């Protein structure tokens, strides 16, 4: 053993308490930093596997009557594709989920309907097969082809080349595998893992939204394009502005205020999440994490510089080895803590992030490389601080800390106080969110999603099934009330048709309102009160007057200061007006902090939906009876797959992810800063006392 190494190890053995405390200080700073680096790496840095991503753009829609950006209807996309000249290619897609059956355990997986040339546009290479899907317009019976991802091929088929040409059973339909993507290609969305791709020619018959494929008002498709050489985004937007004007003139009813805009392909990576805002937040948190590591290194250096009778002096190299070894030990402790706590912290993610996702907190090789560099730099800084203090003491300088370190200690104390105050404020904010009125019951209500269309049911069979399913569910012990609803509370997805009151002048703009198709038991099950008029009933059938129940906000927007019951309004594009049968109390539909939203309910007896959510209010713990409830419904059709079984309490808790995550992250930050400040103050006091 060299003299330097011997001196370093001897001093660590002589002062095990100081060494352990310094390692804990490093671990406290590295622990949140590792988790954050894992999230940033998977959400922003992991390569997408597409060809030349710099030329890929996302074409989005904007409409003055709707907030934010919008997808496109297929007719609008088809017009765009035909008229543009600034792109080498344009393609549309729609993400959806399907049940996988056949060999192996049944799974619910995500895939995409894709228009002609989608995979080629992204530069997807094939490990097996051609990857050529049936072109648009092909008869659905001749379109039952699928391309699967390399990840899915490895997981489901064990990487067997004989998988090419085999069939894949999705929602009880058979699809022939015509391609396996090469490793590394995962499509554009990091949040939802895409396992397969189907041709767009299947959308009208295979998707639950197939009836709206040719409807210009249904904006449900994402559009991606590749810029031609020499064309930039500004040039593309100038051309799209002209196409937007054409669409407004040709189809003013649905495109009255619509426009097309171009954005970098990176905006599609996180799905519905606001990527720029998340990126800013991640950079801010990385800055805070870097500050924590720097303060931890300063604190560790102050600890190592504490006077001790047996402490060696004048060995800068030995002190560097000590500090680096402790930083390495702290990094190992921090990595272990991150691995142990990542599951608990990741459970706070939004419900819109599915279990199968490419975004996670797992440390990759890149994260471990950054951690290694951070450990070496932190050890070097700690050694520099320790050597500087020893040099000052050896030179007979006054006892105590020099003003830079004294100022750093003061900053740590202020930072700790501010972090504790911030954590307290965010905790109160979380409590305030939890106290917000929802407008419907949450406890003791469970929900499960049933898509009879995926089982091949037509409308007549589907109506019989839903009727029998309600009867079976109501007969389950401890079930108090049942109902069906197409929409789900606190859900960002949904239909937003535009409505106009009867007799409105021609210049009056249409109003976007969210729609839900329900059975009469929906209101009583969720305890949504009807404040005027009547609820929907079993008498609201195809043979009776078309009716709707609207919420208070829609009533006030359509007929401000007037009685709404008995008045009529019309969904834009629908031939028949709707008579207001009743007014329901406002509720939270998308998010807890949303402003009051226009909303209306249609009776399932008059308007068909193939996918419905079955709600049941139960006695006691609702979650415990979900399997019994699902089994009772599945007795009607053992092939039926129940999607998303959960309690409304789980959905509600998932909607609280933002305030709860902020409160917990701020709590961790307050804990770490308090520890670092305490160590710095203790080191300053101990050093001052021992020097005296």
Give a written overview of the molecule.
Strands 14, 15, 16, 17, 18, 19, 20 and 21 form an 8-stranded mixed sheet that branches. The radius of gyration is 31 Å and the shape is globular. The protein is an alpha+beta fold. Helices cover 43% and strands 19% of the residues. Helix 2 packs antiparallel against helix 9 and helix 12 packs antiparallel against helix 18.
Quick structural summary:
With 692 residues, this protein is an alpha+beta fold.
- Major sheet: size, sense and barrel closure? 8 strands, mixed
Give the structural class. alpha+beta
How many helices does DSSP assign?
18
Beta-strand fraction estimate: 15-25%
The total beta strand count reads 23
| Gap from first CA to last CA | 36 Å
Low-confidence spans: 310-314
Q: Mean pLDDT, rounded to whole units?
A: 84
Shape call: globular
Essential attributes:
692 residues; 23 strands; alpha+beta; eight-stranded mixed beta sheet; 18 helices
List the helices and strands and how they pair.
Layout (H helix, E strand, L loop, with lengths): L2 H12 L1 H30 L10 E8 L5 E2 L3 H10 L3 E15 L5 E8 L3 H5 L3 E4 L15 E4 L1 H8 L9 E4 L2 E9 L14 E4 L3 H4 L15 E6 L5 H18 L1 H4 L2 E7 L10 H30 L11 H31 L18 H30 L8 H32 L10 E7 L7 H16 L4 E7 L12 E4 L9 E2 L1 E5 L2 H6 L3 E4 L13 E5 H7 L9 E4 L6 E7 L14 E5 L7 E8 L7 H9 L8 E5 H8 L1 H35 L1
Helix pairs in contact: 1-10, 2-9, 2-10, 2-11, 2-18, 9-11, 9-18, 10-11, 12-18, 13-16
């Amino acid at each position: 053993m060299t003299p330097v190494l011997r001196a370093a190890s001897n001093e660590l053995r002589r002062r095990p308490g100081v060494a352990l405390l310094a390692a804990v200080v490093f671990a406290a700073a590295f622990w949140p930093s590792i988790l954050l680096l894992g999230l940033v790496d998977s959400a922003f840095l992991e390569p997408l596997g597409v060809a030349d991503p710099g030329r890929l753009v996302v074409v989005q829609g904007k409409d003055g009557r709707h907030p934010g950006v919008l997808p496109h209807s297929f007719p609008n996309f088809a017009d765009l594709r035909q008229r543009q000249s600034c792109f080498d290619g344009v393609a549309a897609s729609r993400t959806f989920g399907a049940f996988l059956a056949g060999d192996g355990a049944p799974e619910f997986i995500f895939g995409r309907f894709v228009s002609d040339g989608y995979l080629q546009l992204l530069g997807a290479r094939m490990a097996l097969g051609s990857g050529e899907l049936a072109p648009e317009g092909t008869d659905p019976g001749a379109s039952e082809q699928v391309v699967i991802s390399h990840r899915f091929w490895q997981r489901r088929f064990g990487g067997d080349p004989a998988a090419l040409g085999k069939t894949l059973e999705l929602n009880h339909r058979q699809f022939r595998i015509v391609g396996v993507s090469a490793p590394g290609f995962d499509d554009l969305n990091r949040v939802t893992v895409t396992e397969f791709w189907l041709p767009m020619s299947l959308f009208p018959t295979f998707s639950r939204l197939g009836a709206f494929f040719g409807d210009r008002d249904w904006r449900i498709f994402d559009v991606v394009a590749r810029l031609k050489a020499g064309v930039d985004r500004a040039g593309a937007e100038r051309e799209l502005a002209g196409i937007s004007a054409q669409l407004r003139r040709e189809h003013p009813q649905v495109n009255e205020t619509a426009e097309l805009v171009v954005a970098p392909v990176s905006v599609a990576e996180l799905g519905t999440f606001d990527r720029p805002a998340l990126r800013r937040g991640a950079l801010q948190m990385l800055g805070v994490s870097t500050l924590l590591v720097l303060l931890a290194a300063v604190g560790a250096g102050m600890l190592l510089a504490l006077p001790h009778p047996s402490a060696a002096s004048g060995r800068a190299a030995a002190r560097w080895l000590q500090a680096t070894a402790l930083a390495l030990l702290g990094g190992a402790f921090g990595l272990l803590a991150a691995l142990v706590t990542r599951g608990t912290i990741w459970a706070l993610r939004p419900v819109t992030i599915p279990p199968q996702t490419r975004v996670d907190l797992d440390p990759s090789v890149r994260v471990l490389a950054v951690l290694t560099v951070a450990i070496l730099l932190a050890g070097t800084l700690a050694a520099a601080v320790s050597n500087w203090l020893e040099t000052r003491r050896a030179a007979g300088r006054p006892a105590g800390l020099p003003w830079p370190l004294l100022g750093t200690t003061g900053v740590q104390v202020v930072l700790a106080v501010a972090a504790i105050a911030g954590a307290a404020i965010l905790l109160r904010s979380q409590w305030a969110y939890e106290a917000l009125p929802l407008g419907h019951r949450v406890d003791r209500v469970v929900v499960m999603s049933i898509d009879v269309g995926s089982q091949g049911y037509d409308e007549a069979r589907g109506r019989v099934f839903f009727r029998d399913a309600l009867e079976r569910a109501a007969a389950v012990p401890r079930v108090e009330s049942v109902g069906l609803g197409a929409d789900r509370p606190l859900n960002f997805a949904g239909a937003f048709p535009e409505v106009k009151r009867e007799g409105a002048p021609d210049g009056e703009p249409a109003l976007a309102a969210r729609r839900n198709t329900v059975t009469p038991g929906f209101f009583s099950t969720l305890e949504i009160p009807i404040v005027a008029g009547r609820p929907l009933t079993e008498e609201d059938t195809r043979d009776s007057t078309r009716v709707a129940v609207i919420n208070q906000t829609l009533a006030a927007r359509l007929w401000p200061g007037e009685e709404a019951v008995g008045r009529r309004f019309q969904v834009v594009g629908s031939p028949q007006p709707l008579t207001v049968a009743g007014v329901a109390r406002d509720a939270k539909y998308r998010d807890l902090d949303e402003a009051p939203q226009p909303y209306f309910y249609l009776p399932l007896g008059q308007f068909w939906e193939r996918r419905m959510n079955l709600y049941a209010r139960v006695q006691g713990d609702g979650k415990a009876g979900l399997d019994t409830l699902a089994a009772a419904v599945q007795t009607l059709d053992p092939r039926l797959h129940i999607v998303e079984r959960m309690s409304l309490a789980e959905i509600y808790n998932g909607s609280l992810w933002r305030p709860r995550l902020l409160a917990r992250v701020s709590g961790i930050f307050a804990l770490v800063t308090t520890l670092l400040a305490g160590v710095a103050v203790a080191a300053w006091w101990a050093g001052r006392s021992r020097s005296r």
